[in-house]
Specification:
The chain is of the alpha+beta class and about 180 residues long. About 50% of the residues lie in helices and about 20% in strands.
Length: about 180
């Protein structure tokens, strides 16, 4: 019974590579659970430089949480890096699920805690780690990113130039 209730709150959708889930300046209307594929959340600064703040892969949620929760215009674009199969839901449906399903509420709480801890660790790395330490941390926490995403995107995610990341990788291979 509860499974059907939760299942009914999500709509399966295919998002093709390079297709957008959400655009900068618009209100993020959907939260997506990635069943298959990969996405990124990023901003483009005044100089046209892309800054990836988040990757999403299988079994991860993807949304601009601030825009989705506060119904404010997004600062970010979210697009598919690969063809994706996702389960889409809305703020209203998430609220209904949290109100009416204790299991969903508990799951959402655990996911929010994990997301907060990961974000806190990423902020710490960005403000206090060297470029080499940032890359080593990424290798430790998300080795699949290194195999799955292009070097220029990894560099953006780490707050490095592609040249710096290339140098670090070359130094590590020569050790």
């Amino acid at each position: 019974m509860e499974f059907e209730f939760v299942h009914a709150a999500f709509i399966p959708k295919v998002i093709k590579k390079k297709q957008f889930l959400s655009h900068e300046g618009s209100i993020c209307q959907h939260m997506a659970f990635i069943v298959k594929g990969a996405m990124r959340q990023y901003a483009i600064d005044d100089r046209g430089i892309e800054h990836i703040v988040r990757f999403g892969i299988e079994n991860w949620w993807m949304s601009d949480r601030e825009s989705f929760s506060m119904l404010t215009p997004s600062k970010y674009n979210i697009d598919a890096l690969e063809d994706c199969e996702v389960l889409i839901t809305t703020k209203e449906k998430i609220t209904m699920l949290k109100d009416q399903s204790l299991h969903f509420l508990k799951m959402a709480h655990v996911l929010d805690e994990n997301h907060y801890i990961a974000t806190q660790n990423r902020i710490q790395a960005n403000i206090s780690f060297t470029a080499e330490e940032k890359f080593l941390q990424l290798m430790k926490t998300h080795p699949e990113f290194i195999l799955r995403f292009p070097q220029n995107m990894l560099a953006s995610y780490l707050g490095l130039t592609p040249e710096t990341l290339s140098r670090i990788r070359k130094q590590m291979l020569s050790k």
